[in-house]
Amino acid sequence: MNDYKNERNGVFPSVCSLDCPDQCGLLIHKENGKITKVEGDPGHPVTQGSICNKVRHMTERLYDEERLTCPLKRIGKKGEARFQPVTWKEAISTITGRWKDLSKNYGAESILPHGFYGNMGRVNAEGMDRRFFNRLGASQLERTICSSAGAAGYTYTMGGGFGTDPEETIHSKLIIFWGINAVSTNMHQVALAQKARKNGATIVTIDVHKNKTGRFADWFIPVKPGTDAALALGLMHVLFRKNLQDDQFLHSFTKGHQELRDHVKDYPPERVSAITGVPIEDLYRLAELYGETSPAFIRIGNGIQHHDNGGMCVRTIACLPAITGQWKHKGGGAIKSNLGYMQLNESALQADHLRPDHEVRSINMNTLGKALLSAEPPIKSLFIYNSNPAVVTPDTNNVVKGLEREDLFTVVHDLFLTESARYADIVLPATSSFENMDLYTSYWHHYLHLQAPVIPGYGQSKSNAEVFRLLAEGMGYKEPALFEKDEDLIYSALNNPENPYFTEDLWTKLKEDHFAKREGSMPIGRLPTPSGKIELYSETMEKDGLPPLPTYVPNQTEEGYEYTFIPGPNHSFLNSTFSSQEKHQQLEKEPKLFIHNKDAAREGIESGDSVIVWNDRGMCELPADVGDHVLEGVLVCQGLWPKAPVNALTPDRIADMGGGAVFFSGKVNIKSKENGNSPKK
Ligand SMILES: Nc1nc2c(c(=O)[nH]1)N[C@H]1C(S)=C(S)[C@@H](COP(=O)(O)OP(=O)(O)OC[C@H]3O[C@@H](n4cnc5c(=O)[nH]c(N)nc54)[C@H](O)[C@@H]3O)O[C@H]1N2
Ligand SMILES: Nc1nc2c(c(=O)[nH]1)N[C@H]1C(S)=C(S)[C@@H](COP(=O)(O)OP(=O)(O)OC[C@H]3O[C@@H](n4cnc5c(=O)[nH]c(N)nc54)[C@H](O)[C@@H]3O)O[C@H]1N2
Ligand code: SF4
Ligand SMILES: [Mo]
């Protein structure tokens, strides 16, 4: 196994560890033992030498003087961020001492891990951590904040994360970016779309905001938030009415097409136009474009599924390619997630055999605030890693109130003293992914990557896997699985005889080349749905208490509030990662609240005015950007800025499927700070 950490100089292969579909192959330049430059690997078939601005400036983050170098213990009040250095030995024995007491007095379920994908490495994000918490018998965390509603919806239709190979989309003649700001969040899909466009492809973006991806498109279609399922059903209505469906494909590869055909009669263009705000003529034009163009490809984003009805919305859009038989064509079809091809041997990776023999409660991470404040029996300790819940979680005011609890023993493992870490009792310094070994599996392209360490650990920082080994030792555990090397975890994860997309020589290839493509092709005709077909009608949904056919279910309303508030990601941060880096803030300039001319005029707001956005969950101040980038009644802002805590306003309701988050279904009112009356709260 390669290990470059002791090399002083050179250029070394690597991979981007961030939660981004592109999962770029990187080249790391090193001089005198320090990383001096991060660039895209020109030899990587998808990256092709280009990476985003965020990671091009990664060295500034790696060597930021604010980076944590040693363990800390709290000496001030919670949230005050007054700490004093301690040794690793003291930090680990403090944590394990508390956890032994808590386990004895309250049961291990009083301890809750809170980890997400700050580092996508499978060992560090869902390997050694799971082994440890399984053994401890801690409460389970439902990791639902990102894509779980849409994943559940897509799975009802397609059986799992099986979609188009993005490299084939250069052959597409129509590309629809549907609820994805791909220019900022999936830049290599945009590069592929550019190539397709040179070959004559038309690019359509369907969004609530004319953002960078809206402007990139040949045709931007604004929709009212949360109405995309209705739009998709309206398209199906026109497709069938104009006889643009592929009957042969429907017969051979789908279940329930006749039921669907009857059902979409309820979605005539007039009705759909009134729901979605898309003019009737545009609806016809889009349906005809989709029905008459082949290959047609839909990139389904995360935005549409961060709604009350998000799962159904994705489930519905996922039916479209089947109606016109687009899965038959190279470059046709859709991508929501492609993780179906990357199925690891999870029970080996996570040592499921270490789970306790009794049921353990699970907590949905989207309701963390509520759980910290009122779960019964109470959560007494929280271990945060790979994540920054004080900023990223819905209804963060409640999360912060929970973190302020004097009796909550909080540990945060991170590279920086994040907003969450300010409330910690113990802070542990984390290595960056360039300091570790790990396995990466993209959820968009079809490559796996093996990361070898490029530099030694920064200061006294340790990887997640290493920390969990130390914790296991401190707890007095003896099970060998808790002490295995990273390489052993990777090997057991790849050893999945049930995954036909992994070849036997995958491990060897990864060790030699650092990345390797999965084998095989789209399993149309043998999908892991109950029928093996694309399920336009789903009995599983019926059993789960959901409408078995794609259906438009409106989002919830919030009495007394006028605007739908959509606080999405921005171009230069990655969730809250980079949001405190000066360089990245400069790249992004400032947060903005996009508001429609008519709404602004009615509220007495002009561009540049400071606007107070508020509801009964909280408030946030944002400078207005007045124009026609959003529809009336919609407010959009981008980025999780430290100075604009947008999640103080977002609801912690749970989506229709998968326990998903509904960041974009919340309602707010607004006031100009200068002219308006002060809000209620
Ligand atoms: N630069 C950058 N890249 C990122 C991230 C980041 O923070 N910054 N985050 C990463 C992560 S974790 C994820 S999950 C992905 C997310 O990236 P995307 O999949 O692009 O998802 P979002 O940006 O959340 O939302 C996409 C779009 O949905 C729109 N939208 C919201 N509601 C609706 C609706 O009801 N209908 C329609 N049609 N559109 C709607 C928003 O305006 C937005 O443009 O990006 C990853 N990549
Ligand atoms: N308003 C609003 N809120 C959102 C979203 C939105 O669109 N709008 N998007 C949501 C989505 S899709 C997601 S995925 C979540 C993401 O939420 P999080 O998963 O919390 O993502 P980040 O904010 O990037 O925080 C990741 C943290 O992990 C740390 N980290 C990185 N590598 C390592 C490591 O190896 N070890 C340890 N211990 N720590 C490490 C980073 O320094 C960083 O502080 O946010 C959600 N929140
Ligand atoms: S954040 Fe995304 S686009 Fe940027 S380098 Fe990482 S994987 Fe590539
Ligand atoms: Mo995400």
UniProtKB/TrEMBL annotation:
Pfam (any one): Molybdopterin
Family statement: Belongs to the prokaryotic molybdopterin-containing oxidoreductase family.
Source organism per UniProt: Halobacillus salinarum
Keywords: Iron, Iron-sulfur, Metal-binding, Molybdenum, Oxidoreductase
Signal peptide interval: none
Cofactor: Mo-bis(molybdopterin guanine dinucleotide)
Highest taxon, organism lineage: Bacteria
Residue span(s) of domain 4Fe-4S Mo/W bis-MGD-type: 9-66
UniProt name for this protein: Molybdopterin-dependent oxidoreductase
